[in-house]
Design a protein that fits this description.
Blueprint: H1 2-8, H2 23-49, H3 68-71, H4 73-90, H5 96-125, H6 145-168, H7 172-177
Keywords: Membrane, Transmembrane, Transmembrane helix
């Protein structure tokens, strides 16, 4: 009975089934979305720097048939929010070193989300930061938007991937704290 009470309040048990039985599947879906989005930013950079396309022409892969995806602040904000919510919701499934790396990704995404919120507010208000011709984020005052968001997505994705690798290869102590089955079973 005492063991059940302790395990019910264990940090890795927060988040219910999402961070226990469904953690592996949820991480797979989340990772696919994140890497696909990152791939869109990479494709856009290739279109500009390798293929020599102008910035308005370079819309990534999905932006070619659906150009509104690139210009919609709502879509960009929605993705930033989805990313933030996903990082928060899946966080409690991580332990030890993996949790540290996941938290790094989450911290970077908090800032990235704030920058997209700022862009969305400007688009909705019709008034841009410092009178700029288009919605502008704070760091965008120093770095062009395409490069900045490729950089942000890289900064969020890399520690997230490191966290997922460490989560799949936990130490004995980390494995004992895990509520999910993300790590392969130990050979006996």
């Amino acid at each position: 009975m005492a063991t059940e009470a302790v395990s019910a309040f264990h940090p890795s048990r927060r988040g219910g089934e999402l961070n226990a039985r469904h953690h592996r599947a949820a991480l797979g879906v989340f990772a696919f979305i994140v890497v696909a989005h990152w791939g869109e930013h990479i494709a856009q950079a290739i279109q500009v720097y390798v293929l020599g396309w102008s910035l308005p022409e370079a819309r990534g892969v999905l932006g070619l048939p659906f150009p509104w995806l690139v210009t919609s602040e709502w879509m960009h904000y929605g993705y930033a929010l989805l990313m933030l919510v996903g990082l928060i919701m899946l966080r409690h499934g991580f332990t030890g070193r993996a949790r540290v790396w996941w938290n790094v990704s989450l911290g970077i995404q908090v800032w990235h989300h704030f920058e997209h919120f700022l862009l969305l507010v400007q688009a909705l208000a019709g008034a841009n930061l410092l009178g700029r011709p288009a919605p502008t984020s704070i760091i965008q005052l120093l770095v062009p938007r395409m490069e900045l968001h490729l950089f942000y997505n890289t900064l969020v994705t890399i520690p997230m991937v490191v966290a997922m690798i460490l989560h799949r290869r936990p130490s004995t102590a980390e494995r004992a704290l895990m509520a999910c089955s993300c790590a392969p079973a130990l050979a006996r």
